[in-house]
Amino acid sequence: MKRQGRALPARNLNGHAARADRVHGAPRRGGLCRVSHDVNLYPADRVLRAREAAAAQGVDALLVSPGPDFRYLTGYQALPLERLTCLVAPAQGEPFLVVPLLEKPAAEASPAGALGIEIVGWRETDDPYQLIARRLGGAAKRLAVDNHMWAEKVLSFRAALPWAEQGLAGTVLGELRMRKSPAEVEALRVAARAIDTVHQSMGEWLRPGRTEREVGRDIADAILAAGHESCDFVIVGSGPNGASPHHEVSDRVIEPGDPVVVDIGGTTADGYCSDSTRVYCAGGEPKGEYGKLYEVLLAAQRAQCEAVRPGITAQELDAVGRDAIAAAGYGECFIHRTGHGIGLETHEEPYIVAGSARPLEPGMAFSIEPGIYLSGRYGARIEDIVVCGEESGERLNTVPRELRLLG
User: Which phi and psi angles does 121 have, rounded to 5°?
Assistant: First the structure.
């Protein structure tokens, strides 16, 4: 449960106006053009499968710029520049990759260079949009652009191909990405183990007398030390701040007996994400009804994890926890969906939410993170990443979920 944002250097945690999803990160080592040559994690047949899926939906060509869809198809984490880099995957005809000429050596050295796809370099005085328009021709009537393509690039394609209808490639690629391969599930396991290591060490940093920001800075460093390549977000919500699901960090001093919601995650070198939430109580027992509230939440989250199986719908899984929380009198205090898919993005399909009749299938990976929030007092959330198997679910996070007393 966190906002999506680009990771920036961890040192920005010192900034008083800092946003947790943006400032708790650190730059990826080696820069954003980092590549992976794991043929199991990024198999060469993905472009072909995407073209076949596009044809089945009546899409004439996919236009995919740097981002998670691009990485999924090519294994290449290209620089997101103002200069156009674009994978063009026609439903009929051969795919090709258009890159700025100065980026062509990097593209050829990346996994994209081993796909057997033509790599077309364009010079500073060329118009890459017209180049693509000429190669596609007037027969391309329906185009699908990746969901993260910059607006200026979408509009430039519209100008270069005025006869073509534009839609989102997510309707094609999302269906492929949400069903994880065994190699992807293993990559998510590795990420989960890394973030579990940080939760296991929380007693080193979280204690009364420290501010949320100070604790968050230490956690961000630990996420990198645990094996992530970037720290994507750190949420430290103490006392009443825990009642805000998207609280970030603040200069509030943690007091004895404060429940503290800690939601953290990062991205590994393979490109796959972690995300896990636990609750801690620093320097003493929690006050008031918090213990009762937490036991209700713990039972609801356990029931949801145990209910994961092929065929159960997203809304049915959401209801398992929501109904239990409502029966205990906290229904109005569970104010968000149960969970989100995870993979190359922290938030992706499938979403575990009321109103979604999507049945779960083997290979789908998602968070289960019910929460209870009492405004102005405190909150609680427990989050695990779960993968749907052939018969049941597997929790990738293994750190105990009970309320942990520190100090």
Answer: -90, 140
